[in-house]
Amino acid sequence: MASPQDRRDRNDPQDPYRLLEQCLSADRPGLRRDLRRLPKRPRSLAEVPEALRLRIADSAAKLLARAEARPRPDFPPDLPVNQRRDEIAAAIRDNQVVIVCGETGSGKTTQLPNICLELGRGVAGLIGHTQPRRIAARATASRIAQELKTELGTAVGFKIRFTDRAGPQTYIKLMTDGILLAETQGDPLLSAYDTLIIDEAHERSLNIDFLLGYLRQLLAKRPDMKVIVTSATLDAERFARHFGSADKPAPVIEVSGRLFPIEMRYRPVERDLPPAGAPTAPQRPDGRGPDRDLYDALVDAVDEAHRSGPGDVLVFLPGEREIREAAEALRKAHHAAGTEILPLFARQSAQEQARVFAPSKGRRVVLATNVAETSLTVPGIRYVIDTGIARVKRYSHRNKVEQLQIEKIAQSAARQRAGRCGRVADGICFRLYDEDDFNKRPAHTDPEILRSSLAGVILRMKSLKLGEVADFPFIDAPLPRMVADGYQLLAELGAVEELEGEAVMNLTPIGRELARLPLDPKIGRMILAARDRGSLAEVLVIAAALSTQDVRERPPERQAAADQAHARFRGPEQEQKSEFLWFWNLWKAWEEVQRHETSSKQKAWCKTHFLSWLRLREWRDVHAQLHVLCAEHGWKESDKPANFEAIHKALLTGLMGHVGCRIEDASGPAAGSYLGARGIKFWPHPGSAIAKKAGKWIMCAELVDTSRLFGRCLARIEPEWLEEVGGHLLKRQVSEPHWSKASGAVRAWERGTLYGLTVYPRRGVSYRDIDPALCRELFIREGLVQGEIAEGPARGMAFLAHNQRLVAEIERLEHKSRRPDVLVDEELIYAFYDAKLPPEVLDLASFEAWRKDAEKKAPKVLQLTRDQLMRHDAEGITTERFPSSLEVLGQKLKLTYLHSPGESDDGVTLTVPLAMLNQIPANRCEWLVPGLLEEKVVALLKTVPPKHRHRLQPMVDSAADFMARFEAGECDADDPLIKALQRFVEDRVSLKLPMESFRPENLNPHCFMNFRVQDEHGRILGQSRNLAELRARFRDQVAARFQAAKIVPAAEAPAARKNPPGKGEAPVEAGKTEAPAAQLAGFTGWTFGALPELLEVKVAGREIVGFPALHDDGASVSLRPYDTPEEAAKVHRGGLARLFALELSAQVKAIEKLPGIRDLALAFISYGTEAELKAQLVTATLERCCLLEPLPTDADAFAKRCQEAKARVTLVAQELMRLTGQLIAEHATLTKRVAGLKTFPEVVADINAQMARLMPKNFLVALPYERIAQIPRYLKGATVRIDKLRTNPARDGQLMTDWKNLAQPFEREWLAKAKAGVTDPQLEEFRWLLEELRIGLFAQELKTPMPVSVKRLQKIWESRPR
Question: Whole-structure pTM over 0.70, yes or no?
Answer without folding.
Answer: no
